[in-house]
Specification:
single chain; about 130 residues; alpha+beta; N-terminal domain of TfIIb; 2 helices; 5 strands; about 30% helix
């Protein structure tokens, strides 16, 4: 005798929720490190809020006034349009440079070189 066939219930597909990006490509250096920050405390006479756009690598910095309902994507695209048309004053703010890894490797390389030379000398003596 055969069993009854089970009813197969197809599970619904779970699709990921599309999300807006939060980090954008820099028009100056081409690296994807541009962040957008809205400052709601500062308003102009039209009721618009201040937005700050900053690149983490080259230091590209710009401020613009946008409506409060704008998302970060809208602010970035308005900044990009104004930057490419030359309507916006931008600054290149660079962070103080730290000691590069090449310099630190060179100093540590000398000490390692001395260590290996002394080790080779010890082998030659025995």
């Amino acid at each position: 005798m055969a069993r009854r066939r089970r009813k197969y219930k197809k599970q619904p597909l779970l699709r990921p929720i599309p999300r807006l990006p939060s980090v954008f490509e820099c028009p100056n250096c081409g690296v994807q490190m541009v962040s957008v920050k809205k400052i709601k405390e500062e308003r102009n006479e039209l009721g618009q809020i201040k937005a700050v756009v900053r690149c983490g690598k080259c230091g590209l910095y710009g401020e613009l006034w946008v409506p409060e309902i704008f998302q970060s994507v809208d602010i970035y695209h308005r900044f990009l349009d104004m930057y490419l048309e030359g309507e916006l004053e931008v600054e290149l703010i660079k962070k103080p440079e730290k000691i590069s890894t090449e310099e630190s490797n060179a100093s540590s390389g000398e000490s390692l070189g001395e260590y290996w030379e002394s080790g080779e000398r010890a082998k030659e003596e025995t």
